User: What shape does this take?
Amino acid sequence: MRYGPHLLEEVLRRTDIVQLVGKRVKLARRGQAFWGCCPFHQEKSPSFKVENARRTYKCFGCGKGGDAFRWLMEVEGLSFPESVERLAGEAGVELPKWSPEDEAREEKKKSLYDVVEAACAFFEAQLREPVGKQARDYLASRGLNGDAAKRFRLGYAPSGSNALIEHLKTRNITVDDMIAAGLARPGDGERGLRDFFFNRVTFAITDQRGRVVAFGARALEADAKPKYINTGETTLFSKGQLLYNFATARPAAIKAQTVVVAEGYMDVIALVRAGFDHAVAPLGTALTEDQLGLLWRTAPEPILSFDGDEAGLRAAHRAAHLALPMLKPGYSLRFAFLPKGEDPDSFIAAEGAGAMKALLDAAEPLSQVLWRGEIEGKDFSTPERRAGLERSLSEIVSTIGDTKIADYYRRDFDQRVFDAFKRHAPRPRQDAPSFRGGRNQARGERPRYPAPVEGVSAALKSSALGRSGRGAARQMKEAELARLLLKDPEIAERQGEILAALPFSAGSLDTLRHELLNLAASGFRLEKQALENHLVRRGMSDLVARLSTGRSGSGDLGDVPSGVDDAEAQFLQAAQELREMAEIGPERQRAAARYRADGDEESWAEYRRLKGFSND
Assistant: This one.
């Protein structure tokens, strides 16, 4: 620890925590304490208490609390040393001096900040000059004008080998400092000293305090490789420890209680310009532990936004597994997947900021992404494959560091496996049950009936788990509802509550339902053709085609019933019928339990009745 406990206590003693918290929260005195509405969750009556006597704050609603250091870490995303330095400075407490080596290192870093800032100003100026026309044309093709370039400190590194070096020399900056700041490459025998960046659009990378410490750069030549490069590791910059746009995004993220993590610089710029000020991105690498820690100091559930292609899915799964050992109560990740072939820029341009918000609001929880990663596109038709799935899930749980969270994940996966496979069994014979000979009856023993079994679940239809026709009536009813919604999408606005509660079992139709609800909430114009176009862009063209033609993946969906006058009335009728079908499930399970306990003919007959078999 850099600071001793006595010094920390002195800083806290001199800090008026009521005044500190009162800068952000409206407080009212009640006795010896001050109360207000908690800034960490929505509430109407005050449950947030601040006391100078205890030098603490505490919310009795969400449980968050701590001292003045913790407050700055929570609301401003500062690290612990940064919090100590801030409060010590305000309280007039002198912090211990560093060693001469520490001081020299800090002085060197201070001078390098000036070097990198000078380079940033040079790149910005070059973008505005005639030499920067190609770069300006590229930015214009991405919808970025001069104001956007100024806001995000975009620049241009000119062609040639030493334009930046020569400029920095005029500022009396030494070559050693240029190399130390990652702006110049030293001579290597074959080539002399040269600029690190040339003929590239530059993106200023800042540290947590907003100081420029490095650059990302995109090549303008079509055949240049790699397309993007970053400053190398320096005393100011380690790409695995910072996030693009973090200093600017942090206040907005703390206010929104979430942060959006995109894949690259242009993604972040598109999101910020669309109103998502809390957007950040890793710096050309997969998400690291340090970056994840930075995100969690800002928001409890960051949303990771990925392209919906294979690369995006792989990146999501890497991030999901990275997070497991670091999970702690209340802190997790959510995942939002863009349609295949889309990035935030193209998606927002085509669909608008409202559609992007709907996509982020519908982000999947970490557990769902882990589950999907294990089951999608795989066949679990044999006991051995299902056992392999359970082993894989168990290995995932074993990597979770927090024992309480690991226990909840174990239960969650057990329930998912149970729901997926509980009905994966042979179809029961529909003739009269066999009593297995007459000797048992002759001895007066109770006849034993075949154990009740279930058909194949539709819950994992997309994973090729189930291929049985069992439950076809329910699937037909779900498809009927989906076709009605496609025919008259405004039903989702007028009957949103009923739609949200429908017990859809088919994954693709459940996705359709969520799309409709999110679009309705975002203000999207729910018109038939506009909806179909949106779904096609979301990668659901096959589903739209099947619903439009009345064909499912396995057979005819049937016609929308004509016995009711309008689509909304048909929807309400079909919704009621689906609920009744779904309720048979628990009732059938209870009947099966009674049969297993009693084993008599009456309970067997009740079970068969609920299965739809005749008892004649």
